[in-house]
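Structure in, sequence out. Go:
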C-alpha cells in the first residue's frame, strides 16, 4: 500500500496547489491513500467545512489537524457529522474523533505537549487507542500524524511506537526535515513533513508582519503570503500483510 502524507496546507495558495498537484501525483505514483494536515487551510488559521470539502474534492482522503483545529468555530458542529477530519486524540473531552479507520488503514492524530497546549499524554493515548481497537496484537496498517513542536518529543514518539504502527509522521513546524528513515522494528519516521504553502514567507505568513512582530514585540495581524507554492509530502510504502513500512521518501513538488 502506498500512502501520501502532505504537510500543513496554508490558506488559499496551499489549497490551490493541492488541487493542481495531487490528482497527477496519485496517478503517477499509484497512491492508494492521501492524508493531509488541513488545520491552516482557512486564511492560515483553522479549517472550515468549505475548505475541508475543497481539499477532499481535490484528491485528499483524510484530513488531520492540531492546535489550530478550533480557530474557526464554525467547524465544530461538523466534527461529529462523518467528515473525514481528525482532531488530536489526546484532547481530553472535545467534539470529533482522534482516529478513524478507512478500509484496512487506521489513521491516528496526536498532539505533543512540549511548547504546546497542555493535553492528555500523547504516548499513553496512543497505547490506549491501539489496545481499544485491537491493533496492539494485530496492528495492520496504522499511520500516525504527530503534531508537535519539539524534535525530541517527535523522535521519542517514533521510538515509542516503533514496530507498533506503520508510520509516525511529524507535522506542525511547517519546515520539512531530511531524516526520513525506517526504524529498526519497521516503522517509517520523519520529524516533520513540512508545509504546503508559499516559499517566500515565514512558515506561510507574509514576511513583513512577522518581522515587525520580532523587531517591535507588538502584535501584528498575520496574513498568508503570496508567490510560488511548494508542496512538502512524504510517500510511505507499507506491506499490508505485516503493517511494516517498506520505504519512506520525500515527495516535494513546486506548483507550476
Amino acid at each position: 500500500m502506498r500512502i501520501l502524507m502532505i504537510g500543513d496546507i496554508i490558506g488559499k495558495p496551499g489549497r490551490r496547489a493541492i488541487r493542481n498537484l495531487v490528482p497527477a501525483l496519485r496517478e503517477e505514483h499509484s497512491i492508494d491513500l492521501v492524508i493531509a494536515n488541513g488545520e491552516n487551510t482557512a486564511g492560515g488559521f483553522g479549517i472550515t467545512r468549505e475548505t475541508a470539502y475543497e481539499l477532499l474534492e481535490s484528491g485528499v482522503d483524510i484530513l488531520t489537524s492540531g492546535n489550530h483545529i478550533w480557530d474557526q468555530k464554525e467547524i465544530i458542529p461538523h466534527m461529529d457529522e462523518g467528515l473525514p477530519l481528525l482532531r488530536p486524540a489526546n484532547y481530553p473531552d472535545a467534539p470529533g474523533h482522534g482516529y478513524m479507520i478507512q478500509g484496512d488503514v487506521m489513521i491516528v492524530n496526536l498532539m505533543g505537549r512540549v511548547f504546546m497546549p497542555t493535553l492528555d499524554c500523547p504516548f499513553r493515548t496512543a497505547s490506549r487507542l491501539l489496545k481499544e481497537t485491537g491493533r496492539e496484537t494485530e496492528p495492520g496498517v496504522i499511520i500516525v500524524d504527530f503534531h508537535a513542536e519539539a524534535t525530541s518529543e517527535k523522535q521519542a514518539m517514533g521510538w515509542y511506537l516503533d514496530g507498533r504502527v506503520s508510520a509516525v509522521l511529524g507535522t506542525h513546524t511547517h519546515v520539512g526535515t531530511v531524516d526520513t528513515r525506517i526504524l529498526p522494528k519497521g516503522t517509517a519516521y520523519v520529524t516533520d513533513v513540512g508545509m504546503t504553502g508559499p516559499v517566500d514567507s515565514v512558515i506561510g505568513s507574509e514576511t513583513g508582519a512577522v518581522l515587525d512582530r520580532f523587531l517591535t514585540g507588538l502584535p501584528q495581524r498575520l496574513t498568508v503570503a503570496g508567490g510560488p507554492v511548494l508542496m512538502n509530502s512524504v510517500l510511505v510504502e507499507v506491506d499490508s500483510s505485516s503493517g511494516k513500512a517498506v520505504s519512506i521518501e520525500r515527495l516535494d513538488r513546486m506548483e507550476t
